[in-house]
Design a protein that fits this description.
The protein is an alpha+beta fold. About 25% of the residues lie in helices and about 25% in strands. α2 packs across α7 (about 220-230). The relative contact order is 0.15.
Amino acid sequence: MTAERTPLYDEHVRLGAQITNFGGWLMPLQYTSIREEHRAVREAVGLFDLSHMGEIRLKDDAAAQRLLTRDLTPLRTGRVQYALLCNDDGGINDDVLVYAVPEGGYLLVVNAGNQDSDFDWIRSHTPDGAVFNVGREWALVGVQGPGAVALVQRVTSSALGAVKYYAFIEGRVADVACLISRTGYTGEDGFELFCGNDDAGRLWRALLEEGQADGIRPAGLGARDTLRLEAGMRLYGNDMDDKTNRGAPAGSRPEAGGSEDARSKYSAAWLSGVAGWATGWGGQLGKRLLHARLQHRDGLCASCADGATNAARHRRPREGFAGGSGFPPLLQTPSSQMTQGGKPCQT
């Protein structure tokens, strides 16, 4: 099958990107090096083409509540929520972002390689005319890093300071009509900008030009993967798939419970509930996800795990890494390299 191209494909070729096939799409793997692009996102601003991601418009509220693993009733218009789309056996078809749109119903942002199968699955469980596959009509540009908010604010009249994390507004960015979403897949602050395909190149070039003084770099899939891994964000097909958490009896979806992460973007109630079935359904379970909660973002020394004093006693070496948002560089500094007052911990 011929790989698809995003509306920004020619921009990537012009910038000399190394192109790869990802989920059936020709995408930039890197422009210079993964390391340089990773650092740009952590220290300045990175610009991503995310147009391969799928978008599904679901207008049936009851179907959305039934098919997704999160309770959508508290989700207010203009807010976003992370959820899973599961099959009848409890396996994970996809992980998605759910946007409560002003027109009613929801917009689901799904993974590139799953957008058609997700659409078919949802359509088979909803009334006619309730779901639409609109992903190939939209482009999506990510602006991520400690300088991202200031950069986007300079090219829009919308008040971005009022847009909370996992919220969105409609506005114009560089005179392009956009849905401006304060979301991302890097562990940094920033925005994901949805726009029409015909406007994507103009938006991309405007952000690159305006961001020169901020040290902006286009970033490819390689850096996106190292960034999300460092931030502890899962990747469908690698960390989970339709065999993950499979084996629970159909219809036995867990209800309430789970860790505090259930109140944020992870569906901990669902995942911890499914993991709990392992003892009774271990023979049918292919893989299961387990959750660990980091108590302090400053990191924990393996030999000094007293959470009450750890943050004050230890700090991470900053050489070679500057976390713009303060997110822990989990993969950069193993516990053996934690420091106490600038010296290796001896306790």
